[in-house]
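Feature request, filed as a ticket because there's no other form

It would be nice if the structure record came with a short human-readable summary line next to the tokens. Right now we just get the raw output. Example of a typical job, pasted below so the devs can see what we mean:
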Amino acid sequence: MEIPSVEGWPSVLRGDVLPLAILGQLQKPKCSAELFRTLQRRGLLNEPGELPPLLRQMEKQKLLKGNWEETGSRPRKYYSLSSSGKEVFVKMDNEWQKVNRELHQLFEGDGGNDVN
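Raw output as currently delivered:
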């Protein structure tokens, strides 16, 4: 695995947690535009074109369900979690919380006997 330059780390970290963020945001159905705005405000996405391929992939993996609705002047596809997506979200979130705790302990020192 090639380690990205220091300048590239933020985008690598954000990109790696993006599927978790998407699953977390789709606890309630959202259209892709609404989802993009939320993820953009949080600094997880920059370009609208980044989201559709990921949503299609996650739908193909049966993590998401997409339903077309006639709202306003044009149809919009609303995404929600499938039952499998809900299970995966719980597992991913638990793992993320574990990694977060471990990193916090590592950075702050937990009194363990780590080798220097």
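Something like this underneath would help us a lot:
The chain has one domain: 17-108.
The chain has four helices and three strands.
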